Amino acid sequence: MGTKTLFLALDSVEPRAMERWMSEGRLPVLARLREAGAACAVRNFRGFGNGVFWPSLATCSGPGHHGRYYISQLVPGTYRVRRFAMQSEFGGTPFWKHLEQAGQRVACVDMIRTPMAGLGRGLEVHNWLPHDGDGPLCTRPAKLAEDLTARFGPDPFDGSADVFFRQRRAGFAELARLAGTRIGWKTEWCEERLRSESWDFFAVGIQEAHDIGHLAWHVHDVGHRAHDAATLATEGDPVLAVYRHIDAAVGRLAEAAGPDATIIGVTGPGMEPNSSGNDVFREVVRRLATGQTGPTEGAPAQSRRPRLPLRQIYRSIAPSVLRGALRSLDWRLAQRAEARVLAGRPFFSVPHNHNAGAIRINLRGREPNGLVAPGEPFERTIAELEAALLAVRDTAHDRPAVAEIVRVRDCTSGPHASALPDLLVIWNREADFSEVWSPAVGTVRSGWKPLRTGDHSDRGQLIVSSPRPFEHPSLPGELDPAGAGEIVRRLASAGHVVAGAAA
């Protein structure tokens, strides 16, 4: 029993923290795996966030091929945004489907930001204990969903650590404890599958570092501007606690995989302090697009609805079903109104991860009401936008608000590239963003108080350990997620591992 290849997707584990704790002996299993094998850095596509990292690894391709970059994306051929439909809109096929088609027996449990692959002979568990799922728990065989729920009960985080933390006002030690419960459930169940059946490729996604990293990074990071030294002193480091749960789970799963198994782990994209200009970005882009240097007449710079007592009363007495229906109607009406506005602008912002703002050019021939012609007008618009955005400054510290601007077409291509933003505006994470200013937009203020104190870095790591002979060339010093996915696919296909550990 066991498996030939065990693949562990360790979502949002920050390599720098992991390296430190491995060297201190706090993550002994991960340290042993790396010392016995090979390792290299994995660097996310520049400017993109978590929404691209795992889909790119799964498909061994860039976002221009699979088309997924964020939880909400522009609907092609419109000016409307909606939640990305993973099962119907995802382009590309996870490489484990190809492994099964080649004759391997495959199991995939909670793989991250990827759709169900439709394994015919294998095992799939989707949206069991995710960071944020894209739908209900789905399994193949279908009866597994009922068995998992009956045995383990509901998700301790009720489907969202953010909502749980906000509504229950849980402490950080409690969050770490519940994260450990989730990790323990998944490990126990996967151990049983590994010990009772034989597999060629067994993949497990462990996502609790994502939850705790977002919510508790200010407790862990003593350099964070909102560092919570009191909690760290009294409760300990919740990020370390979760990483230790993960380390123990890796040890249990590796043992259950058997002595002949190749163990492959990928971490990332990691975590760092959450400092983002996305709250002011929409207004900055609006002013650049309209030529205004102040808020819309009669409206605040940031379009926020006031919290009226009447609204609070309504929320307390209206049935949840009615509230949900009204929210949906309100959202659709707001989207239609917004679409009419965006159609008349040469460019506009679209949703993206906190690490970078995203801009779409209203390009003729691509957008329904395209205003910017292809060729020289498009290039001129891009160049003018870049210059204007690079001039935006954080007024609290008199430093640039923007670290870099990425032209998306320069870093990815493929059949879904036209669905992606045109520009990614990477924020300077040393900036404050409570107020920004430039000659072109004037002053824009933010009242954003993020629940999440940690956000994704672009750092990850690939670790490979195997008892079998090293027959492939050494790992490079750095891979992007697509390259890391290709390495995993090759190793799982050939049954061998790469040689040499990168620094």
Characterise this structure.
The chain has 503 residues and is an alpha/beta fold. The chain folds into two domains: 2-273 and 454-499, Alkaline Phosphatase, subunit A, CATH 3.40.720.10; 278-445, no CATH class. 40% of the residues lie in helices and 21% in strands. It is built from 17 helices and 23 strands. Strands 7-6-5-8-1-9-20-2-22 form a nine-stranded mixed β-sheet, with helices on both faces. Strands 11-12-16-15 form a four-stranded antiparallel β-sheet, with helices on one face. The chain has a four-stranded antiparallel β-sheet with strand order 14-13-17-18, covered by helices on one side. A hairpin with a 6-residue loop joins strand 3 and strand 4. Helix 3 (50-59) packs parallel to helix 17 (481-494) and helix 9 runs antiparallel to helix 10. The two termini are 35 Å apart.
> What is the count of helical runs?
17
Whole-number average pLDDT?
A: 91
Strand content range = 15-25%
- By secondary-structure content and strand pairing, the structural class works out as alpha/beta
Stretches where pLDDT falls below 50 for ≥5 residues?
297-308
Reported for the largest beta sheet, the result is: 9 strands, mixed
- If strands are numbered along the chain, what order do they take across the biggest sheet? 7-6-5-8-1-9-20-2-22
CATH topology of the largest domain: Alkaline Phosphatase, subunit A
| CATH architecture annotation name of the largest domain | 3-Layer(aba) Sandwich
Within CATH, the superfamily of the largest domain carries the name Alkaline Phosphatase, subunit A
* CATH class categorisation of the largest domain: Alpha Beta
Distance between the termini: 35 Å
The percentage helix is 25-40%
Oligomer: single chain
CA-atom Rg in angstroms: 23 Å
Could you tell me the number of beta strands?
23
Write down the overall geometry: globular
Tally of domains? 2
